Amino acid sequence: MDYVNALSGLISIDTSAPPGDNYGETMECLAPLFRHAGFQTETVVIPPEHAEGQTGRVNLVCHRRSQGKPRLIFYGHVDVVPAAGWDAFSPRFADGKIYGRGAADMKGGIVALLGGLDTVRGASLRYDVSVVVTTDEEVSQASQLHYLAHFLAPVNGANVFSLDNSFGYVSIAGLGALHMVIKVKGKSVHSALSHLGENAIEKAVPLLQALLDLKSRVVKRESRVGAHPDTGLSRMQARLNINVINGGLKVNIVPDQCLISIDRRLIPEEDIAGAEREILDCLSSVPGVDWGVESSFKIPTVPPCEDAIVDELSAVIQKVTGTTGKFGEMGSGDLSHIVTSEWKGKEFGLGVIRPECNIHGNTEFVYLRDIEALAEIIAEFLV
Fold it and tell me: Assign residue 363 a region: left if phi > 0, alpha if psi is -120 to 50, beta otherwise?
């Protein structure tokens, strides 16, 4: 398989989310490649009520069914984070690397899957295999996954192999996520008459300091689940970051509101309700500030996957690459909770992402050798 050409074609389609355009074109590109690998394909248009009101959400479901064998579903997504400041959708190949938005996260993983499936096209597989290629993972896709369950049936007890992961080891756990937008309220007046108003930005300062004090405690929490040494961590760690602050209309107007966006990541041993309560208690401890929760988004934590299939995949990685392991990912997504809580299945993963690949950043790239190795791992795992 020509991995460079296949991945270059996918990268050149701008599937930034938001806004989430060009999904149909991408699935039209992928469907014949999966059919060539011996799979039946079906494009699934997600109704707006199952896509947060969005239109144009086209997913792809592929099957190579073998009734009576263990159920295995490969998962991937074609949406990417937006890009600015570089020519992100003009792919280039240099020094064994393919550059472009989505090269590692995670169109490269989909191309590796295609290579692995093509390798075993005529072979008997150990599993009853399906593939789902989704959209809006970088935004919110829980509703879409709910809708897709019907097209992937049976999902009860399924093994779900997520390609949206790091290379070189089996990913057995991820972080939960709690995103909160806090609105600090003030009173708008002319800046020269500021004594008659209330400056929401200035009132936000003690709240920010209280959150930073909480952060110093949160980041000391470590999971029993190890993190890969390439992350610079020995174990998964909790996170609390203040990533966006919005407030003010003009330099001579006292602002009447300030929005603070909080990104809280939870290790598997924590729970969403406890993390939310901790933040609210922290903010409530600051006197004299009028604030409220504008919005929140939650991805619950799940226990690490500890199953024999993980050990099998780890052994295949060792055979192909010479190194392996089982580690937690310092990332989050809707998939794990849905698989474990609703499908009563097992979710684990392996992809082509490395820390140096700079996913979500400028000059994102993937190593061609990692795509080739992942394809070989998938083929070996299936037979």
Answer: left
